[in-house]
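INFO batch 0412 | record 1 of 1 | parsing
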Amino acid sequence: MKQFLITLSFIICILLPGSKVISADEALVEKFNIASSSPNPVGSGARAMGMGGAFIAVADDATAASWNPAGLTQLRKPEFSIVYSHFNRSEEIDFSNHPESSTSPSVSSDDLNYLSVAYPFTLCNRNMIVSLNYQLLYEFKNDINTNYHEKYANNKNYAQRVIDVHQEGKLRTLSPAYAIQVTPHLSLGATFNVWTNNLFWSNGWTNRKVTNVRDFHGNKLYSRYTIQQYERYSDFSGFNMNFGFLWNINKFLSLGAVLKTPFTADINYERVDETSKLQFQPKLYGAKTVFKTRDKVDLHMPLSYGFGLACRFSDAYTMSLDVYVTDWSNYILEDSKGQRISLITNESSRDSHVKDTTQVRLGAEYLFILTNMVIPVRAGLFYDPEPAEGHPQDFWGFSLGTGISIKNVILDCAYQYRHGKDVSKQSLTGFSETKADVTQHLFLASVIYHF
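INFO prediction complete | emitting tokens
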């Protein structure tokens, strides 16, 4: 009965004249400062991920449009491919200032990772190929729930706080690609990435943070309030290109490189900040405030580039090494008034110090070539850091893969394990001393059909 009366009083007080809605022009709203993080890059294709993502100098299936489009010239038959992915991320989060708040959130998702049709042909005595590709390139996914007690200066009064943070969304492209074999040993290629919200999927993400607070004076409940912060980034649209080359130095060595151009995406931005308060002492009082803002913002996506080296010891055994750099310091959100925010740190770009990340990937593949089929065994190791304030956060991992090739059909699967220790979660939680041990599992399965 007591809880019912409190809830009823809360509803009544919210509807009192003290409630008001304030427009963005009337309020000092700091935009873009709640739950956010860099997107998680999503790799394409089970074969590539089975080799740890060391695929720039290999790139001999339709997913080359994502890794190195020059590698498409290695396809000799028209090809259809589809890739499914399952992703799971679990965390052990520790709050140094509030150890009682430690939590273990977990998120997972299932997606169409890649879909493509590729068609090789010959023109002017040159091998060429065109392909049309759907790519899932980035994913936003985070969930955090925690609660803690905060004592006030007099050590008699305290607050109970429960915080829920949720982030989700995806960025996908429709990507035509073209490649040409300039000489028997050198190929060039380009992928044209159309980031659009106008096809069969939505491009964007949402952030939501809800804080419930109960203030106690002594043992008596003094006040109760809820703070809800919601951001929606929708209609993400833009255009960029991947340029690649592949040089078969000899029958043993191949050198590849890819450059993914930076671009500016247009986004519709909405934000709602809502605070509902019910005060019990010294008298009953309720109020509700709502701040709303909308804007057309620009998201500056960073330049990235990579180099790969592949060594074919025999027709059955290949090893590859990739080094890949992303300029996350230029991952900046800019509003219509020119305010620039780093989405890595949720601070002004002038006050943020975000360095480039450098991935290093090593992979291997061995083919058991039988009479009517080929069975591959793949493995990879990688260092794949995430951007953060000051310096990148270390993530390491390994991958395993296999499959079977029978006539015109190729089935592949891969498993990837990725782990980061003592990763900062400040931008998501708002706490200055928040660390987490992060574990990620990625499973990919693909079907390729040559026709």
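INFO post-check: Confidence is low (pLDDT under 50) at residues 1-37.
INFO record closed
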